[in-house]
Predict the 3D structure of the following.
Amino acid sequence: MIQVKQVFHDYEGKGKFAVSDISFSVESGSIFGFLGPSGAGKSTIQNIMTGLLPIQQGEVLYENQSVRGLKTAFFNRIGVSFEQSNLYASLTGLENLRYYAALFSVPTVQPMELLERVGLREDANKRVSHYSKGMRQRLTFARALLNRPSYLFLDEPTSGLDPKTAVGIRDLILEQKARGAAVFLTTHSMELADALSDTVAFLYGGVIAACDTPEALKREYGRRDVRIVYRENGEERETSIPMDDHERLSAFLKTADVVKLHSQEATLEEIFLRVTGKELTA
Ligand code: ADP
Ligand code: MG
């Protein structure tokens, strides 16, 4: 388990906090979706968690051990896929994975097996300088899985990928969870977060505005509506009535010429807007 406790970060030391009082935990065998618009502080937190930024205030614990005291051997246990990847452009995809695999002192996954899974088998022997942005992203993702990490950090793993590839990546993320990894998924895609996360945190302006399971957030903030398509004066019209407004609902249904009726749940996107008052755009 990873625990983040009351973390604050001030880049310039002028009392302007990029993130304030951030606390949450990521259980092993679960996916934690970290959601927020650009500038919310997602990368700051990820960088503090992975030791790239020193902790100024608060604590990050891996199985109750502070990130401050972790030895280099710890890097055998984590996998990180950043948006801005540092791949070797003059090496092929396969060579990149072989090179990184050799840096670990734990058994690693066969590079070719991973390339296959992310749809890069055919391009394994092409230099990365000839890879598209999406291909580089998939290679970075594959690289993060090489050491079967116990703690996996993924920053926007499916942004800009075609739907078929994105589904493949989703499956791979779910496999990491099933294997017992604690997955920290940073994204601004509500759909991805909703589909994969056991818990989501909404980050906005450097603070956590809400943190719970997607189901609980929907229960708390999401109103369920009944959408009704009905006929009036020979024309089809549409309306929606809150599901728990029984009076209005039954009154409407008694008199209307109903064509279609279905209930709909609020999406995480709508809930984010309700909680923070802001759209979740990139
Ligand atoms: P996100 O990843 O959610 O887009 P960041 O963590 O990158 O957000 O940034 C959070 C805030 O911290 C932003 O206001 C950003 O301008 C500021 N920030 C990020 N990096 C630095 C830095 N190196 N120096 C000063 N301010 C920074
Ligand atoms: Mg970022």
The pocket of adenosine-5'-diphosphate (ligand 1) is lined by residues 11-12, 18, 36, 38-44 (CB under 6 Å). The CA atoms of residues 7 and 58 lie 4 Å apart. The chain has a mean pLDDT of 92. The first strand starts at residue 2 and ends at 9.
